[in-house]
Design goal:
- By secondary structure, the protein is α/β, with parallel strands linked by helices.
- It has eleven helices and five strands; from the N terminus they run αααβαβαβαβαβαααα.
- The protein folds into two domains: about 210 residues, Rossmann fold; about 45 residues.
- Helices cover about 50% and strands about 10% of the residues.
- It has a five-stranded parallel beta sheet, with helices on both faces.
- It is globular and about 70 Å long.
Length: about 270
């Protein structure tokens, strides 16, 4: 039996108090970080290969169904505002299309050719990378997509929560994070989903740092999409250049990013 389908370590859940339930869930969640930590070598190896392709103009694609698909879309959608990359740099796709983000689409995950059809409009090349996300490691939509990607010369990886799955065997960089039985038997939106999110955070954040999208520890290319981020960017500029808050904000709004504003201020000072 797959680990993701194995019986919960807890029983009689409906008889537990609210405190007992959250204690049990928390105890299981505490196991996730250790499971992810055991796969850091595999994760970092994939990130290095990914960055090599992205430096050459490649893009990163995530595919998944259900919770796995939603997590990929979440990670991809956060890259433009966080790191200032184009919306076509990191792309997440879910079985059943965008409507499946909110409402499950029956049997969409069982379509072996579905992922490649969904990817076709993006004109994939050998520079691109495809990550299949599936807790079970058996989702046809995901397996079919990565197998075709391998045939077409893309870099492939997967994030799964079972060992020796068909999905892991189909990719170059399998990342198998086994978190044990779920608190509610088979509910992989719980520990498995948490593990997948942690790995996705590592992949996208590490890749963007290695691509030069962070300086020191600051998001110098973040999009200025609200007052909070404008205020944050202004403080970054003040810390880097020692100019006044008013001047920093003016330069930030004029140049559109912390990086560009700091560069202009420093260049001006050097000329004086």
């Amino acid at each position: 039996m797959k680990t993701t389908e194995s019986n919960s370590l807890y029983d009689g859940l409906e008889q537990m108090s609210a405190l007992e339930l959250v204690q049990g869930i928390n105890a299981e969640d505490a196991k996730v970080a250790a499971a992810v930590a055991s796969k850091l070598s595999e994760i970092s190896s994939f990130v290095e290969a990914l960055v090599d392709r992205m430096k050459d103009g490649g893009r990163l694609f995530y595919i998944g169904a259900g919770t796995s698909g939603r997590l990929g879309i979440l990670d991809a959608s956060e890259c433009p505002p966080t790191f200032g990359v184009d919306h076509e740099t990191v792309i997440g796709l879910i079985a059943g299309g965008d409507s499946a983000i909110r409402k499950a689409v029956e049997r969409a995950e069982d379509d072996w050719d579905g992922a490649w059809k969904d990817l076709a409009p993006y004109g994939l090349t050998e520079k691109d990378t495809l990550v299949g996300i599936a807790a079970s490691g058996t989702t046809p939509y995901v397996i079919g997509g990565v197998k075709r990607a391998c045939q077409e010369g893309l870099l492939t990886a997967c994030i799964t929560c079972n060992t020796e799955s068909v999905l892991a065997q189909a990719v170059e960089h399998p990342i198998e994070v086994v978190v044990g039985p779920e608190f509610v038997t088979g509910s992989t939106r719980m520990k498995s989903g948490t593990a997948q999110k942690m790995v996705l955070n590592m992949i996208s954040t590490s890749a963007m740092i290695l691509l030069g999208k962070v300086q020191g520890n600051k998001m110098v290319d973040m999009q200025l999409s609200n007052d909070k981020l404008i205020a944050r960017g202004t403080r970054m500029i003040v810390e880097s250049t020692k100019v006044t808050l008013e001047y920093a904000e003016m330069m930030l709004l004029k140049h559109g990013s912390v990086r560009a504003a700091v560069h202009e201020i420093q260049s001006t000072h050097e000329q004086e």
